[in-house]
């Protein structure tokens, strides 16, 4: 039986993210690499919604413990009103590593 190490290596990080679409709507998802995912969305290889309403701009990113936590946080944010999503993005500036 293998043991799971206490510390995850950097490549095993999980993030919940939010983008603002061209129509000013917010799209929320999760990924292991937010910058790669934004490129995918803008290249038409993302979710159907972002393909139809792109290009997108990364406005919020939050590192979470694992993929289950990412799914839960994604579901929580998706229930927020447009105003609450805008406030979440405004109150949490992107970390330097995720700014374009």
UniProtKB/TrEMBL annotation:
The chain positions of domain GIY-YIG read 12-87
Fetch the Pfam families from UniProt. GIY-YIG (PF01541)
PROSITE patterns linked to this entry: GIY_YIG (PS50164)
Cited Gene3D superfamilies? GIY-YIG endonuclease
Q: Which family does it belong to?
A: Belongs to the UPF0213 family.
Indicate what this protein is called per its UniProt record.
Answer: GIY-YIG domain-containing protein
